[in-house]
């Protein structure tokens, strides 16, 4: 009955970025556009900072769903990238799953658009195969709060853990002394309110 | 302890549409009237598209609760239809349950008005008989968000899975290549924001 | 692993009305005052209608908490009534628990003010003694939504079922034919929107 | 440029209750049903208490709009009552306007359903004829807050004053000493939170 | 100081539909997509019903803003249509203004995307030229509520009247007897909650 | 047409604190209790700091409305204090008005409970007598936001200016150099978020 | 399957106050600043009242995060205090954990800033070591409600119980007779709405 | 009585950026931090794009209020910059006003923190001197929505026009053909949802 706390481990985790495409992003209404862009790029910066293997995928990118957001593509030039020919659940794409398994990691960080489909389906698939799945809720968006709430419920029930990009970064980092400047830089870039603290501090410290 | 992901399977699922009646609909206030009408009809279109056996039922339709929404009746002219003489929980109506069992399906999709009674009661009954139950939360409405939250909690606790019409459609469809036009048509009809993507795409592609 | 659906049974349930006192009611801010008064009285009417044994209790009613709402006292003139001398959790009052046990019921319906204390504590106590506990969420109020959410979470986790007065009434009634007029009268009195349906129906039926 | 404060004067005001009909009430979603029923009846009680001449009117009451709420009809058995044959703006009904003018009052209190039509149109008409118009905003309802905001803006711009039933009652009463019991009774009936204060006071005063 | 009520007059009004384009619509977040589509089409149906001269315009429709919503184009096949080459304020397009003036109307109904630019600018321009301008607020959308509130304030201050499609329809119609079926049909189509009233009425009337 | 900016002038303003009584405060629901207490006491601190003549009044303080909040009474031991025998509008109390006029001030700061009555009525009365009236909106509370919005509209329309305690303090202070410590102390006490800035600053400056 | 209700026991619980620092507090936006300050100080007062061993810790207090709130430091002058040199999860600080274990308590009360990191991480760590953990949700703050909801979900899933400072106080106190004055004093200080009840009571009792 | 539409004119307008300082920004809670940073920088980019003379000012920047946001300072290296020694209303600083007047412009664009003081006071001062003032509401922030609403009301009443950065940009630009790339670049940078449209367009156009 006792709980076992398996922390996110930068050496045992793979990041899945699912369907952050220019068309699909216009469907996201549980975040403001500024907030959501910031959250997605913050998560990407964290993955880069910790050298976490990352896998990108899109759905029908030649159609109305549009291409993957260019910033993401540029940030992960060498990451495995799967433009799926039709599978809605990216876990149904054999190449994608093969790439995930090839990393040898047991933990999955996942974010995507829309939460109830592009995130929930592979989350359930991965849980069913024994992975620990951590959903980055604020880098995943969908139509409205009702849909979000239902999707979160389904994933929780199956055992997924709900996190946000900031707590993901902190759980991976563990100790500021591992790299104060680097991690602080990410916070300053993606948390304007934290950047303000740093600026006041610097000014006042002289 | 490991999770088993039984996806919605179009060959093993039956849809129950419970008490979408003109009078009862005026009680629904956890959705705007436009949104709710759209959600209910979208779910019906999905059931038609995947040829999912569907069963309709109403409560006291000759009284203040009013008749079933005519669009639903027209969409399922041959579906089993049970105007219950008094049972509040449609699972207490023997003919209804017999019809459900006659389909031989093990998965149930359910939506209705109001969520805390007409959806929750048969959901709990069906779970108790071993069915997998998927509640279509956005085609189910009730008095207010407090009531909705309590009803969702009770159903979750009993093992129901909470979904929305869009994720139901996607989980049933699995792969766009199974029928791009057909499935895309449903989305265009019921997701104006997706219709806009298609229209821009078509115009720009020339 | 299968779920067992023990419905609310009018012959096996006792209602606990905890601390609906004039002073404490001024603390309730997760409902409008009109809504909350209506919900509490609706629950009381349901208990009367189904002849459910009911037990009332108050905390420090001679102090700032104030006396029990007079309507409740008048509706249950013969119900066991316990003005607790100091116990915060009414389950710590031996006489109260004795009265509950004397009913011989296995199901408990509970509502009170405030949700996180006067409802949550006896709910947890009763669950620990093996009772099935159904919390009437909309006849229970507290300081704000954050507090409400936390209190609901704690009770859910312990196995309580969250309901609302309308679903309680419907689950107890089971079939309209048991008494159409009586049950309809309660709805007409406490659901203005349903009263309107009845009125339109009556006028139009002529 | 200086402001002239013409208070509501019980000897110079007429109340117009417009289209509070059982069908139309189902359209009101800027208030909870309990709150709205309470507000409408509170306004009616105030008019009765101050013997304010009141005029009732309905639109197509034999059709889907339904009959006027029975409580209102019963409270004003002798009031002029106009079931309009088709005019949307009740000010377009000559008999209605004649009745208003026959009162000889210069101030109008108005409430109705829906705010943007049944209240706004006669408000603008009456202002154009030189009446002072006081809109009872919480006894007037409409589809949603966007519509409410636009309707309020239009009426404000034309010079209407926006009030609520409680401030209407207080401005008419002027001094508690005119009738403490009577006015307090209305507040106790329609402000549960005030009834609680009275109850605590009474209990504590002994 | 007295107010002059110039009602919307179907013989003296022109409708301007500004920039309802597939791309721009993805920017609208002060309404749900279903609600907004419904509102825009309801306004168009009203204009058709009353034979109100209507003028359509788009901004950069060959670029990312996308083409005008096809339903609008189909509904107004013979309406003047101006695909502006670059003017942001459509009132800066001479042909557009010429078309407005050619109608000889003194009242303008306007709706568009986004409210703070495509609606506010021509509204201010038209007011400055002496037109009476009625903004259809619920067929006009923008980025968020803060922006909406500021845009409404600016237009109010300049003398524009804020309305919604329903009140526009009612003020134009004036009397149900002018065409009960026709006008009722529009309401039934665009107000699901009113359609339900009609359906209950019809069923119960027999 | 040009605007004349008469700033709040500490030598020409009187503060009216109306009906902040223990019973009436339980009616205030447009602020959280913590926020409201803080706002009222902040306004009082500002009046003390600038030595603004202040006048206190209560309505029926021996009845359910309860006594004035003790902190206020203690802060203004020598202020004129009027326990009104029955007048709802404190401007109807001759002694009160005499006290206001005796100050010889032309500007009035007013706050009270409830906004739509105890603030709005004297505000309109004072405007009618030529005073400039500044309503401290966040030290004035009422039943809900609908009521607040209507009351604000009525007061704006009559020419009152809506402010908050912080802007009142700043407009009176004009220049930090007049007393940095004193004014900063009030902010630190009533703006926890500003207190945090000061604390960080002090710590970092060393 | 039966639930075991281990109440908070003042003799078996330790309080952890984590990172309530002046800089970090500016990040908290799921509470108003007034509410949050009040909640944190109320929790501290409760711990003092029940003589609960308390442990304080901060993260990088010499940097932008700023010093611990001075009120907390003053209230617990003798409490173990750990200014962590870099560990984000305070449970990673050996001295901190040693201090917790040295208390010999089996229950942990925890509050901190931000909820998703500074509260969630040590909560999960403590649960994994077999502690019962009670999160004081309203004395713990974070960036926004989405983040809060995800963090609560993760902690619930692991077995933490979500409470609020008021229910913590009540569960520890158990019976008012243990010290009416003392406990009432805390409520009067931190619940203005309860202070009002006491004041009315005292005035009316005479 | 007729309205005169003086558009924002890039040759006759000066921008005032008031007190966007790292400490004060932590007080802004009517926008998310991401949204607010984006809005402020978008406004700055617009001023740069149209070469609008800009004046910056800060209040007590060596104290807890902190230094001006560095991005702003860098964007306007040659702009007049006034670190006010104590005046709260920047219009009380003679050098500042002299700089404004030296521009010879008749229109003022203003944004700042906090809205009710640092924006409202100079807005009223400038209006009183005959300037046309356009408040950029979404680049101005304050404590909460109540405060924002009151501040907007006061400025509107005095004749200020409320705008948002996007409408400011569009009113200045007038015609896309003046510089499609340049203006589109600003939108792409500060409206992620518009950037997505551009990206889809570019991809699909090929």
UniProtKB/TrEMBL annotation, chains A, B, C, D, E, F, G, H:
Gene3D superfamilies: Isochorismatase-like. One of its GO terms (molecular function) is hydrolase activity. Residues 14-164 form the Isochorismatase-like domain. InterPro entries: Hydrolase_YcaC-like, Isochorismatase-like_dom, Isochorismatase-like_sf, YcaC. Keywords: Hydrolase. SUPFAM superfamilies: Isochorismatase-like hydrolases. NCBIfam families: C_hydro_YcaC (NF041461). This is Hydrolase.
């Amino acid at each position: 009955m006792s709980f076992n706390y398996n922390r996110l481990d930068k050496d045992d985790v793979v990041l899945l970025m699912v369907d952050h495409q220019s068309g699909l992003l216009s469907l996201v209404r549980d975040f403001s556009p500024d907030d959501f862009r910031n959250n997605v790029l913050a998560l990407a910066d964290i993955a880069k900072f910790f050298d976490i293997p990352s896998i990108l995928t899109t759905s029908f990118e030649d159609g109305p769903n549009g291409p993957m957001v260019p910033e993401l593509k540029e940030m992960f030039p060498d990451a495995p990238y799967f433009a799926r020919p039709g599978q809605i659940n990216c876990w149904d794409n054999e190449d994608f799953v093969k790439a995930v398994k090839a990393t040898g990691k047991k933990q999955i960080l996942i974010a995507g658009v829309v939460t109830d489909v592009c995130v929930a389906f592979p989350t359930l698939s991965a849980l069913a195969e024994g992975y620990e799945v951590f959903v980055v809720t604020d880098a995943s968006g969908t139509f409205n709060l009702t849909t979000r709430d239902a999707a979160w419920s389904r994933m929780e029930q199956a055992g997924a853990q709900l996190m946000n990009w900031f707590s993901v970064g902190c759980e991976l980092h563990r100790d500021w002394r591992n790299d104060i400047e680097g991690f602080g830089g990410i916070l300053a870039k993606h948390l304007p309110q934290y950047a303000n603290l740093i600026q006041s501090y610097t000014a006042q410290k002289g």
